[in-house]
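Progress against Task 2.4 (sequence-to-structure conversion) is shown through the following example record, which the project officer requested during the mid-term review.
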Amino acid sequence: MESNPEDVKENFVQLKANYFKILCDPNWGLHRYRLKFEPEEDNYERQKALIDQHRNVIGSFILDGPVLLSTHKPPLEFPPGDDHEIIVEYLGDIKPGDHRYLQLYNLLAKRALESLNFQMVGRNFYDINTPDAKINIEEYALEVWTGYQTAVQHYDDGVMMCVDISHKVMPQLSVSDLLEQVIETSGTDYQEAFTAEVTGLHVWTEYENKIHRIDGVDFSLSPLSNIRIAEGELGMTYKEFYKIHHNISIYRSSQPLLITNYRARNRREPAEKIYLVPELCTIAGLTGALKNDAIVKDLLSAHTTVSPESRIQKLLAFNNRLLSSSTLKEELQSSNMKLDSKLVDVIGKVLPQEKLIFGDDCQVDVNSEGEWTQAFKEKNLFHTVKLENWVVVTPEAYGFEAKNFVARMMQATRNFHLSEPHYVELEESTPECYSSHMEKSIINLNPQLLMVVVQGRRPEIFTRVMRKCYTEHAVPCQVITDKCFTSEDLNEIATKVAIQLSCKIGGVPWSIHIPLSGLMVVGVSIAHDNEESNRSFAAVVATLDKGLTRYFSTVSSHERNDQLTVNIIASLTKALEKFREVNNGCLPSRILLYRDGVPDKQIGNITDHEVSRVHKSLRRIYGGDVSLAYVLVSTHSNTRLFHGRENPPLGTVIDDVITQPLRKDFFLVSQFFKEESVMPAYYNVVFDSIRLSFERIQILTYKLTHIYFNCSSTVRGPAPLQYAHKLVFLVAQSIHTPPDPGLQDLLYFL
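Structure tokens generated for the chain above:
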């Protein structure tokens, strides 16, 4: 690797993290016992109840079929009961580090939260019984619940509990209430409007404490219909079922049933339709109208934004409540464990601030807030392509505003040349009208790019526009709303849109020094199709040059995980072919691949199957060894870091204490927040033959957070992965099919 003295300067900083140590007796451990009940008892819940009567004898335990896992050292004997006898056979100890220890730790945390009257909704606990923790926004019939996410894990510095604050927005209405509102506003045509309103919503069924995503509505069914299962129908109505099994009375017999597609863990099997009764479903989150209400957004932000200082106070207060829980205290004492009362200390290293390269080789310092907007007023863009033939499609009512906006864009960037566009003014703002006029413009004018003006948020028009440009044709497109025309920051918005137009036709606004030749960086992002529950998409975005300014992208669809791996390999093969074409027949000397969307439980499976198969395929292409790093990325970890009462400095890296043993992992703070507590991204290097030190991988990763061209500031993840995420989200949410290959050399999806 080429030397660059600025790359290796490090400062160290003392931090705290949102973790509490669990102090364990070194002689403490888990023991396995086989249980036999006399008379025989097959009911699992009944078995647990019989064992629970003797908790003072056996301490904390987990029942796994006929095997009891307990902290009680052998011999273990149960006192004889009135109607049952439990016979015990000792099977041996469980080695420290086994995943079943974590099961026990997390079970203890769950019991403690339940003893403090926290309400479990989905996977998190909410403090809805404490008045200050539940905020009522009466004018919008909303409640904001404050809760906590807890997870106990083995870390480099021992066993710790990670605790973070969470919020859930709960509208105070059921889906049945929403149905009545839609009927009132839409009249006899309510069915289509109601389906559009609820599809994609998440709902909470309190009787089973589950969160479901609504995938559709069946108006041919009602609570009086017989229950449908995969094998046919049961001889019982939904109304009867809920009364018998949950003691719930359903009052509105004419309501339709909601459809949620249950996805089995084995994705080879088709999704199973589950039917829900609207009256029993509470909306969890915002409805479509409220999602786009700026006032609601501001109100919610005021209640859910937690500063570092406030977060520390809340975490310590929560810890104090846990320590005051007699249930947890007894459980921990019986297991020779103790929960620490202090946030854990960690040492972070702060990477040096970067310099960006603009046109004419001008260098710009990135400030301490990770931002460089001012540079666009003073510097030329790094590389531009003339936009000489383009079309603006706008409703007739916004013709004047559109022309004024284009004029501002022409003045916004110094060396990006925009010719006067062709204007197409629409008499009607319908999807069909947009589609037909765009078709004529593309056929007759063969433009480099289309810019489309839409009044307000119109997803049906956005979808039609995207499909027209990206699947029926191969024309870059920029959609803007009329809100841009009335913004107080009109010049700033015009500058941003102009830069996006430049990028979409092959321009590069800025670059960064990469002290490494022959590197290809790849981002792989996965998303589920919001129309077809069994279908998912994978986007692969790869760099093609040393400055990481040219990109190749491709999208594939799959229904099974084994198809996903095949598709990733095929996409990487295409990217390597393109790299070879651009670089005089040479393949990259190193490949740095970032992959998102992998839960902790699937890491082993991804490593054993996907990563190994990708590596073997690359070896076949290279005819031998290949320098590859495969990095799993989570940009939404629950970890929070604190520097005193503030956020850590930009560029802070943590690779000890709160990282995990046997992993090559680190946290990186690559964004600046003034008010909210920063959330570092988590990186786990699961395969590494790239011939770079761990520190070099960290430095490269930080550099990559500076070259996401959609904003003039650093971002949470590396740019190629951010691009892949944006592309796959566009496909999964809007166009539902891979885009035309004619676009794959452009960042058309920005």
